[in-house]
Amino acid sequence: MTTLQVSGQQKSQETLAEHAELRIAMDRLRVIAGASMDVIPADRLQILLGHDLNEFALRVQAHFSSEERGCYLGIEGSPELSGRLGVLRSQHEGLRVRLRGLLEEIEATPPRVDFGDRLVGLLNDLFHHERSENEVLQESMLRDTGRGA
Ligand SMILES: [Fe+2]
Ligand SMILES: [Fe+2]
């Protein structure tokens, strides 16, 4: 096993751990996104969502940057997975744009009635993205184990 393979496998393990943390952050934001304006007035909901969405956006940006640094997800030399890896990597920009758009909107104005639904829609798409990455990571690790690496 080369040093390059070790660092790739370490990165894959770290990515899986980050996904578990991100999942908790997504659950937290999902709860806040579902908060009713009957319970929390719009001006206070704006502050709450603005604060939490800003923290979440920073976390996601750092996570995407980490995945994109070097070889994507730490998976190297795997032509059979390269197509799926390319698709997943290409999804980052669209998710970044949507996240930035929601953040700018909530920082500028109290949440419109459909804001929570649009935020949940983004969280759902991000969840599917992360779950697909987990599947590719697990397949890659199984292949490495099968090769006796
Ligand atoms: Fe990703
Ligand atoms: Fe990820």
Architecture overview:
The protein is mostly helical and 149 residues long. It has one domain (17-74, 82-146). 81% of the residues lie in helices and 0% in strands. The chain is built from 4 helices and no strands. The chain has helices at residues 3-33, 42-68, 79-108, 115-146. α1 (3-33) runs antiparallel to α2 (42-68), α1 (3-33) runs antiparallel to α4 (115-146) and α3 (79-108) runs antiparallel to α4. The radius of gyration is 18 Å and the shape is elongated. 19% of the residues are buried. It binds fe (ii) ion (2 copies). The site of one fe (ii) ion has 6 residues, from α2, α3 and α4.
Give the helices and strands, then pairings.
Layout: H1 3-33, H2 42-68, H3 79-108, H4 115-146
